Amino acid sequence: MEALIRAILGNLVPILFVLSFVVAAFAGKPARYEARLLDWLLLLFLGIGSTWSGIFHVFFPGIASASIGWAPSPFETEIGIADIAMGVMAFLASWRTLDFKAAVIVYVVIFHLGVTIVHVHDAVVGGNVAANNFGLLLISTIVSAFLLPWLYFRVRRSA
Q: What separation in angstroms does the CA of 120 have from each of 6, 79, 104?
């Protein structure tokens, strides 16, 4: 049971990514699936997931760094605060206007593309294939960087 809890907590952000698709499939409002999925990705994957990541970076940097394959550093707190800020804004955006969502999505896409470059470089050049450096978290980060703007434009076009 302890191993299962560790696996869930260690992969919470990718789990929330997948859960967003599942919840959006069964939620009733908004009527269009793309709009529901955008809202649930903002709420679960980014809102809760980014805040969760940020809390670990700020308050448990040894655990967060080890899961990425890095040593703790003062920059851990900075990335944690950025994650928490992104999480709070995404949480708010999940029930706000499309314009508000657009601003959050622009930030998230730039952040996720930057994170992707750093983590892929670290894996290719440094050989760091730690679970949270080059695993499910990276995949959900890459997919979200392209999926979020696509969903936004689909929802904007149908509105």
A: 25, 18, 24
CA distances from 42 to 17, 92, 115 (A): 10, 8, 18
Which residues, 6+ apart, have CB-to-CB distance to 126 below 8 Å?
none
Per the structure, the count of domains in the chain is 1
Nearest CA to 24 among 156, 149, 151?
151
Q: From CA 112, how far away is CA 145, in angstroms rounded?
A: 6
Instruction: Please state the length of the chain.
Output: 159
HSE, CB side, 13 Å, CA atoms: give it for residue 61: 13
pLDDT tens digits, one per residue of 55-70: 999 999 999 999 999 9
The residue segments making up the domain with residue 36 are 2-158
| 19-40 pLDDT tens trace | 999 999 999 888 899 999 999 9
Q: What is the pTM of this model?
A: 0.94
Structure tokens at 71: 């040593």
